[in-house]
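From the pipeline queue, job 12 of 40. The input is one protein chain; the requested action is below.

Action: predict structure.
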Amino acid sequence: MLTLKGEHIYLRALEPEDLDFVYSIENDERVWEMSSTQTPYSRFLIKQYLEQAHLDIYEAKQLRLVICSNDHTALGLIDLFDYNPTHNRAGVGILIAAQDNRGKGYGTEALELVIGYGFTHLRLHQLYANIAEDNATSMKLFENKGFHKIGVKKEWNLVNNSYKDEFLYQLLYVH
């Protein structure tokens, strides 16, 4: 699918072979704050999740894609979540798994691809992202792709016994 293929990366559906990759991401406590996770996931639960990954976005209200380099190495995940076909909107979240793969443009390219897919194929009117107040890298990524900060959720997340604000970013489709 050309829509999900970029210059350096492509996005693909989850496969059963992604079990270890997804398991390592979901159980990395350093990223739990971004996904509001509080507990680890078992391999069994991840396996069940992957078995249900064939459900389309209209059924599951979510689409999780693997970000892969052109040599087929899994680099991260990008999600469309809270898909609402009535109002033509969805949230978007992105994670490049390995620290040494960050800052190389993979996230930028993946976000470009998912924006194009969302607006063209899903006919979305808007995408939104929730970004922690101290995640300057994500703010820059989304702002560079045309997202605007439209609100602040005050003291939204409790992290290490301290409340942190979360920013709401939005990108509207321009006809």
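Job complete. Residues 26 and 37 are 8 Å apart (CA to CA).
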